[in-house]
Amino acid sequence: MEENPFKAHLYLFLLFLFAFSAAAYSIGVNYGTVADNLPPPSQVATFLKTRTTIDRVKIFDANPDILRAFAGTGIAVTVTVGNGDVPPLAKLPAAQSWVANNILPFHPKTIIHLIAVGNEIVATSDKSLIAHLFPAMKALHTALKLANVTDVQVSTPHSLGILAPNSEPPSSGRFRRGFDRVVFAPMLEFHRQTKTPFLINPYPFFGFSPETLNYALFKQNGGVFDNVTGLNYTNMFDAQMDAVFSAMKSLGYDDVDIVVAETGWPSVGDPNQLGVSLENAVSYNGNLVKHVSSGKGTPLMPNRTFETYIFSLFNENLKPTISERNYGLFKPDLAPVYDVGILRNDQALGPTADVAQGPTAVDPRKKWCVPRADASDEALQKNIDYACSRGVDCKLIQSGGACFDPNTVRSHAAYAMNAYYQAFGPQDYNCDFGHTGVVTFTDPSYEACEYSIQGVKLEKSVAGISNVKMCTLAEIFLGVACFIMSIHLV
């Protein structure tokens, strides 16, 4: 049978679009828990899934409550082996036990994307930790294989302290002498063979001076010229990334992927602390998100999109210094400290000072009904059945409906409970549902799924321009391509 060239080209086109779409969502967040006022993990997982575009998180342990909370969300989780737990894992039986206790009970229902073995160990100068790091990585990789887990990667995050002092300009980047051949060459060979990424924690915040603040913040500046390559750097992030790339290339491993495991900027610091302000945090993190998602790459790594984890999700009140307590994108009540373009459904807010007092002003006429954080799926399924049996239009949470995804009991219950609440009131007792519902002043609508308020239609109009959300270029092309394929691929 003769090959249809139209089919072949269209398949290639679709593959490109899927790759493009995946690259566009490369922003993750570090979910630290050094605080005594954070919301429960289940609430965090629901918030990230329904209210943000974050599709991956990195945690600093293997907290079972967090891993359970992210089950079924589609959000990928990177778990961490604590530094003190690394030495015993250099032996396979201990590594197998760790995998059995921390991975197998949760994966694949919870998507565990990667195991980070320790954090910035090489820069600690602890000879015992450094000596056991790579053997532990290999043992964990073997333990995963023996358990038939093939989709969990193994790596370890590095600070820029792994670079030699003379790693400027970026083309001269080298690993510290004595570590290059002994530590990093075999480690990079492991990454090449296992197709896993090299994790780095670039922090321009720790590298700027008064003269280079704009350079660190992605603001207008004259740039830094690399006279070896003839390239001009307009931001410090690219320079730090390329210095690491140059170090890898000097050992022959420029083909290994790089992932940004941590980077960020505090929004509040000690009085007169240089460079720390809400404005600067917005500038760094906001421009970072645009930059790493653009596909432009860096001068030495053009046309690359880097998986990047911002530090951090929350302001953590038990950290030792003021600036360390204020790296968060969100406050513990889930209100944004500022927005960097990750909020869904036009929920973006302008920067809000961390010292703001009192609750946010709300319109008391606009109330919605949503499930309580501690409500069980069994109870919520009963709420769905009850609401839909009382004449509430539940078509939107059926397959193909605007509110079908995410396809979870909690998400469907939120829609059905609110629809009932709006239809039969809205008095607060119509949101009780056996103590499983709660009234909120925060609109739970997302993407094309718009929740009603009293007197407002449940479904979005597709006729009014003001109600149409703009699609990404990839979504438009994908829709057109799928339509063409449905006509021609017969």
Automatic annotation (TrEMBL):
One of its GO biological process terms is: carbohydrate metabolic process
Entry GO MF terms: glucan endo-1,3-beta-D-glucosidase activity
Keywords for the protein's UniProt record, in alphabetical order:
Disulfide bond, Glycosidase, Hydrolase, Secreted, Signal
Q: What is its EC number?
A: 3.2.1.39
Subcellular location as annotated = Secreted
The record ties this protein, via InterPro entries, to: GH, Glyco_hydro_17, Glyco_hydro_17_plant, X8
Signal peptide positions (record):
1-24
- Is Signal one of the keywords UniProt gives this record? yes
The EC category is: hydrolase
| The keyword Transcription regulation is assigned to this record | no
Which Pfam families does the entry link to?
A: Glyco_hydro_17, X8
Provide the Gene Ontology terms for cellular component.
extracellular region
UniProt domain X8: residue ranges: 367-451
Can you state which reaction this protein catalyses?
Answer: Hydrolysis of (1->3)-beta-D-glucosidic linkages in (1->3)-beta-D-glucans
Similarity section: Belongs to the glycosyl hydrolase 17 family.
Q: What is this protein called?
A: glucan endo-1,3-beta-D-glucosidase
Give the source species.
Answer: Ficus carica
